[in-house]
From TrEMBL:
Residues 70-180 form the Serine aminopeptidase S33 domain. Pfam families: Hydrolase_4. InterPro entries: AB_hydrolase_fold, Hydrolase_4. This is Serine aminopeptidase S33 domain-containing protein.
């Protein structure tokens, strides 16, 4: 009996230590940046412009702007939680092929972006200032916001505030607590300082929304997109991609075919 009680006490201690780590080190469990030196040279197969954007606190954010051969407008792209634009920059191929310039933002602490992520508000503020800076170059032309995985909540928030031509969400989560519960049921949702409530922002978005999710997504369960349906407009769409996991959606031929149909259905640019 004493041995059982001792084992239970040890499990409780381990659990409390884990929850304490989660409370104070959440950034290390959510964000996995690849940092690049300031003199890093990007090598892509298309013209690219490096853009430095001052954040509200003076920290410099960095991103890459890829130019289409004959630009119809802008895709503002918010990538996943790992890597940097050195690898994420290749997503441009799916969108420049359809005639759109593509800006890929590196979050604070990623790539050449300075600083470190320390709060959800800061994350949103950074994406807001980057969007205003880059979208300002495309006044009167179509602006499409695309978010992948961790970037979906901020992409939806931008769309709720700025009403772009289109919002595309790739492998979105319903909210971060909902995702955490699906991955780690023993973790109480109230401990998370990062809520990333995608469902709140899509409900506030007047722009058309198209959601893509891989049926074989092993990280963000496809039911997340199904749950988001309750917050979408009747004309918004959820497209499930057969055989698609969490990573590599932009290279999926089925995704590209559906994306082309979506882009072709957009209203023409205003003269």
């Amino acid at each position: 009996m004493k041995g059982l009680l001792g084992a239970l006490a040890l499990l409780c201690i381990v659990y409390l230590v884990m929850m304490g780590f989660l409370s104070f080190q959440q950034e290390k469990l959510i964000f996995f940046p690849e940092k690049l030196p300031a003199d890093y040279v990007f090598r892509f197969n298309r013209e690219v412009e490096e853009i430095a954007i001052p954040a509200p606190d003076g920290v410099l954010l960095h991103g890459l702007l890829f130019k289409a051969d004959e630009s119809k407008g802008l895709v503002f792209y918010m990538h996943g939680n790992a890597g940097s634009v050195a690898s994420w920059g290749w997503v441009h191929e799916a969108y420049t092929a359809l005639g759109y310039d593509v800006f890929v933002l590196d979050y604070r602490g990623y790539g050449k972006s300075q600083g470190e992520i320390s709060s959800e508000k800061q994350f949103y503020d950074d994406t807001e200032v980057a969007f205003r800076e880059v979208a300002g170059r495309y006044s009167g032309r179509p602006i499409l916001v695309v978010g992948y995985s961790i970037g979906t909540a901020a992409a939806a928030r931008l769309s709720a505030q700025h009403s772009p031509t289109l919002l595309v969400l790739q492998a979105p989560y319903y909210s971060l607590p909902d995702l955490m519960h699906s991955l780690y049921p023993i973790v109480p949702g109230f401990l998370l300082r990062y809520k990333f409530e995608t469902y709140t922002f899509v409900a506030q978005t007047r722009s058309p929304i198209v959601i893509f999710h891989g049926e074989q997504d092993e990280i963000i369960y496809p039911g997340s997109s199904e749950k988001l349906k309750a917050h979408l407009k009747p004309t918004d769409r959820v497209i499930l991609l057969q055989g698609q996991g969490h990573n590599g959606m932009n290279e999926d031929p089925a995704y590209r075919r559906e994306l082309e149909k979506v882009f072709d259905s957009l209203p023409p640019a205003k003269p």
